[in-house]
Amino acid sequence: MPSRFSGAFVWTISVVLLPVSLTAQGGPTDRPAVDETAAARGRGVYAKHCINCHGSTAKGGPNGPDLIRSTAVLRDRLGASIGPAMQAKAASHAASLTQAQIVDLAHFLRQRIEGVARNRTPTAPIDVLTGDPEAGRRYFDGAGRCSTCHSPTGDFASLRTRTSDALTLQQRVLFPTLTRSTKKVEVTVTTPSGPPVSGTLERLDNFSVALRDASGDYRFFSRVPGMTVDVRDPLTAHRELLDQYTDDAIHDVVAYLWTIK
Amino acid sequence: MRLAAALLVVASFVAALHGQGTVSPSALAAPTSDSWPMHNGDYSGRRFSELTTIDSRNVASLSLGWTHRIAAAGPAGGGGSTAAVIKGTPVVANGVLYVTIPDHVWALDARSGRELWHASWPSKGGWHIGNRGVAVLGTSVYVSTPDCHLLALDNRTGKEKWRAEICDLDQFYYASAAPLIVRNHVIVGVSGDDLDIPGYIEAHDPETGARQWRWYTHPEPGTPEAKTWPSVEAMLHGGGMTWGSTTYDAQLNLIYFGTGNPQPVINGRRRQGDNLYTGSIVALNPDTAQLAWYFQVSPHDTHDWDATQTPVLFDGTINGQPRKLLAQAARNGWFFVLDRETGRSISSSEYVKTNWALGVDAKGQPVPNPRKEPQIDGALVSPNQAGGQNWPPPSFSPQTGLFYVNATRAFSVYYLYESENDEKPQGWGGNDRGGWSEAVLLGLDYQTGKARWRFSWEGSASTRSGLLSTAGNLLFAGDSANNFAAFDAARGVPLWHAGLHASITNGPITYQLDGLQYVVVAANDTLYAFASRGR
Fold first, then answer.
1. Which chain B residue is nearest to residue A247, measuring alpha carbons?
2. Is 80 exceeded by the pLDDT of residue A130?
3. What is the torsional sign of CA B1, B4, B6, B12?
4. Which positions of B are catalytic?
5. pLDDT tens-digit profile of B335-351?
6. Which residues of chain B lie closer than 8 angstroms to A253, CB-CB?
7. Closest CA relative to residue B467, chosen from B500, B495, B489
């Protein structure tokens, strides 16, 4: 019978990768780049001639269609489509724009489209300070059991001055890492034949474990039947909390922690 | 030593290459064990092979046959940040293996990995996020491109026979899906999530490329299903892309596929309702594009949880009765078993613990908790945007009766960026951030919806490895620590593994040529072919 962790057929090779880096963009490569100066002029053209019907965000209004979702606008190249399209609707677009104004308008609309296409990235700060600080303090000392390990006068003293913004704080509360901590993941490996070996965890998968022992030596073990691997992760309690938090508790405790200046 | 011996064995068979030949529709209807002639191996989507040369008793003798590194070729142009990563499933027919990345197809000798030809073309754009592979029929190889084309290539040379436009780059569509051949139809889906555009799937003539039909993933205005949108305009800009894989039941003459998330993606506050047919499993007649049924996996999704995971077809027994079944482990963390003749629910259960649903309704569809929709100050949601499952394909073994999922349990926080007062959200309008996750390989009992076994990938937060099961009682899977492993499929116990230079990035396949069974898998830019004669 084959051994579960037979090392004989385990091999590793290493290849130097040459990643190809390209500018992220989803649409056609020939779509015009936005000239911000022209777009700013185009904003003025839009405000004067278009906004009443097509709305302040160009997403349409009672009397004019959505220009962000307009196929003619999406296919436009520097006014080549929208110019004739406006001419065709002369009755409702009586204002005769110069070619230069049409190009400026095209840049403005393209700027709007690109803004929508990228709005999975925030353009304004995210306000997460909606909770009740006092309720957060009670949670910290009570149900959340935060005070078991943390203290506003100890490790959390002057927390706010050490945290860039409340969103970052919320993310750290929920998903802490050990990158800024002196704590490490510790592991003890006990082989069937030898004494237990303990150290800080370097690498772990189902087939091997590696640690750095107290003397600084790197120790690697292939995992075999009869071996025990005891991992002690200081963040285990935080992972367990993910199943217990309510969103209200999260917002409250972040509001409380933000008061610790 | 064993490795060298295997390489010698492979080298001795290089001369036996038969050439490209043709692929008949019957070869697709009943694939032989010397091939893997479509994305999922066969129409069922099970990714199960009848091969038994390699089995759970001898798998430890599996060793390296060949490797092939695609020649440092990144995407040929266009947008996207993807390096040369193989995310597609290779297709094997007549001794030739076809593998892709966006804008590139390689034909390799399936016995040796030696390159026969390489086709690439300049791109006009589109997201270069991945390509899921080719379809083959006759002397043609079909592939979709990020710049919205379906190409037919000559299988002897890679030379282009025709190209058909399948979407509009200017509307920010792109294409990544593997086409599926059903008789005289090349069926292909589309992608695109930046702007608010309707999803669809379409069929083309294999000889000419002419479009035969297009089916939009939204209802006809005026129908009862259209009332799941607040307006016709919202519906016609409501997303539902078709970038997953399609399966086919020849007897029922139905194709099955999942549809993507609705749009706007995250801010759903101005598209109240269930938003059909987004986030759904859909059954269509491949000749007429007539809708047979739908089942909505994620009503009113606001978490980017496409329901594009493979709808896997198998016959089974439910309450003592033989049934034609369809099962999907959806991105939203739920496992659905349906009657594939009617689309009616048999069971719905969580395969990873989630926190977004209040329960299931009478139709077996999860009921979303409005409090877990994205919020301006954040909502803690499980699973995260990547989901309990994503595009890496699952597998079903009729031998064990288990549906295998390489699952992720994850949390993240979903934020809404635009003001609640924004009259017309568009695009995404929010996103998720941060998180914690763990990876687990599951053997799900389709009769109960519960895991008969679970194997925790220690040290792996998530994995992008697809799965393969075989009649040798084997399940092949990878973790995110560069391991590729074979498991006892019935018990979930690892029997063999190899450490690669990177983690698995696609779904493994298997085929047998000249008595040698190959298992081929990709890790980033390299294909690894493991091989064994069994004993």
1. B379
2. yes
3. negative
4. 304
5. 999 999 999 999 999 99
6. none
7. B489
